[in-house]
Amino acid sequence: MTISSLCSKISGEVISLAGFMGCGKSTVGRILARRLGVDFYDLDSLIEQNSGITIPEIFASQGEEAFRRMEAQTLETFLESRTNRSAVLSLGGGTLTTERCRQLLQGRSVCIYLKASEDTLVRNLSGQADGRPMLEGAHDEAALRERIRTLMARRSGIYESAATHTVHVDALQPETIAKTIAQTIA
Question: How large is the average pLDDT for residues 26-51?
Answer without folding.
Answer: 97
